Amino acid sequence: MAMAAHFRSITTVVSNALSRDIWPGGERWLRRLRHPAACLTVALVTAGLCAWFAKPVAVVACAALLTLLLLGSAWPGISLRGLSARLDFRQPRVTEGQSVRVELTVANRWPWPAWGVFAEADLGTVERAALPRIPGWSTSTFTWECTPRCRGCHPGNPPRLVTGFPFGLRTAARLVTVDRPLLVWPLTVSLDTLLDAAATRPADDLVASSRAGESGDASGTRPFRPGDSLRRVHWPLTARTGTMVVSERQAPVLSAVRVEFDSDPALHTGTGPQGSLEEALRIVASIALAYQRANAHVELCHGHHTITVEAGEPGRRRLLDALARLRPAPTACTAAQGGCQRIHPRDCGVFHVTVVSQHALALRTEHRHVHGDRLWVVLGTSAPHTGLAGRCLRVEGTGGEAFRQAWKGLCRAG
Fold first, then answer.
1. Pairwise CA distance, residues 152 & 321, whole Å
2. pLDDT tens-digit map of 344-373
3. Fewest Cβ atoms closer than 10 Å to its Cβ: which of 37, 313, 343, 390?
4. What is the C-alpha to C-alpha distance for residues 285 and 152, in angstroms, rounded to an integer?
C-alpha cells in the first residue's frame, strides 16, 4: 500500500510538471519562431557561418536565402502599390440572411500581373473573396454573392485588398473605396394578429363605422376565425348556435402605441446576430411594422431618443433604415450607479410595449416600477417575473418563429 501511494504521488508530480505552463508569456515568442521568416533567417545565419568558417561555396546558399527574404518581404507591398479598387453593392438595402451581389473593380497600374490577392470586408462577419490573376495595365471587375448575417451599415470597417504573395513571409494590405454603403435591415416576422382593442386601449375614440377592425363598439357578429381573441367570443350566441361566433368591432381611425427597448450593450447578453440586443431589435421592428400597417401612430423609444414611424411604404423604409444605422451606445447611467431614470417616464395615455432582456431586468430595477397600460416582452427567461406592472410575454429561444408563436398565443388569449 505504501509503495502504491508513493507511486501515485510521483505520477501526480510528473503530470503537474508536464501540464503546467512554466512560461506564460512565451507563446508569442514561440509563434514568432514558427514563422517562415524566422526559419529562413536561421538558415541564412547558418549558411553565412558555413561560408565564413568552412566552405566558401556556401555563399551561394546564403545569397539565395537572402534573396528569398528580401523578395518575400518587399513584393507584397510593391504589388499592392500599383492597385486601386472600388467596391459597390448592386442593392442598397437587404434584410439579414438575404444575399447581395458585390462588385469589385480593380485597376492595375503596373505592367506585370498581380497574383494571390483577396478582398476582405466586414459585413457583420469578415467576408473574404479570392481574386484570380489581375493582368498588368488593365482594369478588372469581379463579382460574387455574399450574405450579411447581422443588421447594420456595412462595411463596418474599411474593406481591404490583402496579399502575401509570393512566399507568405509578410502580408500587405491596401484600403478599398466604397461607392455606396450597404444597409442591412433587421429580420422581421409578419404578425397576422394584434392585441384586442380592450387590451391596447387606443389613444382616442375616432373609429370608422363602415369598416370592421379591432376597436370601437360592436358592429355585428361573424364566425370564429383562427387567431381571433377569445375575449371577443360571443358566448350566448355560441351556446345557442353550437358554433363559435365572435363580435366584430369598428376599425380605428387612429390609435397610438409606443415600443421601448434598451440600446445599451451592457444590458444585453451575447454579441453578434445571436445576441439579445439584435433579437430585441428584430422584435421591436416586427411589432412596430404590424401596428403601422394597422394605421396606428407608432413611436420607438430607446434611451432619450424617439423614432416616429410614418405611414405607408416610405415610413416603413425610414424605420428600417434608422434601425440598421442604430449603433449600440451606453446610457448616461449604469447599473453600478443606481437610480437610473427609466425610458420615457410619462405614459401619455398610449399603450406601451417594452422589450427587455432578462439581464436588463436583473441590472436595472427601475424597469419593475413602471406603471400604466403596458406589455412586457422579456427575452431569454423561463421563470415567471414578479413586480412587473402589466402583462408579460416571455420569448424563450431565438428566431422569429418563437416570437411569432408567443405573440399569437397572447393575442388569442386576449
1. 9
2. 444 556 788 999 888 888 776 555 545 556
3. 313
4. 14
d(CA 375, CA 355): 9
> 233 and 145 in one domain?
no
Sign of CA dihedral 308, 314, 320, 323: negative
Reported for 131-138, long-range contacts at CB under 8 A and 24+ positions apart, including other chains, are 131/104, 131/106, 134/83, 134/106, 134/108, 135/108, 136/108, 136/110, 136/111, 136/112, 137/108, 137/109, 137/110, 137/111, 138/107, 138/108
Residue 217 resides in a domain: yes
Higher pLDDT, 280 or 227: 280
Q: Which of 46, 373, 392 is nearest to 198 (CA)?
A: 373
Q: Are 264 and 394 in the same domain?
A: yes
H or E element at residue 404? helix 400-413
Report which residue type is found at 70: L
What CATH number should be reported for the domain holding residue 178?
Answer: 2.60.40.10
DSSP state of 350: S
Domain extent at residue 294: 256-327+347-413
Amino acid at 182: L
pLDDT in tens, 70-98: 998 999 999 999 999 999 999 999 999 89
pLDDT of residue 305: 87
**92 against 55, higher pLDDT:** 92
Neighbours of 4 (CB within 10 A): 8
How far from each other are the two terminal CA atoms of the chain, in whole angstroms?
Answer: 73
C-alpha cell at 196: 384586442
Q: Structurally, how many domains does the chain consist of? A: 3
Listed in order, strand segments (DSSP E) in 176-325 are 177-178, 182-185, 207-223, 245-252, 256-261, 297-302, 305-309
Of 78, 130, 124, 84, nearest in space to 107 by CA? 84
Q: What's the confidence (pLDDT) of residue 12? A: 81
Contact 116, 173 (CB under 8 A): no
**Contact call for residues 414 and 229 (beta carbons, < 8 A):** yes
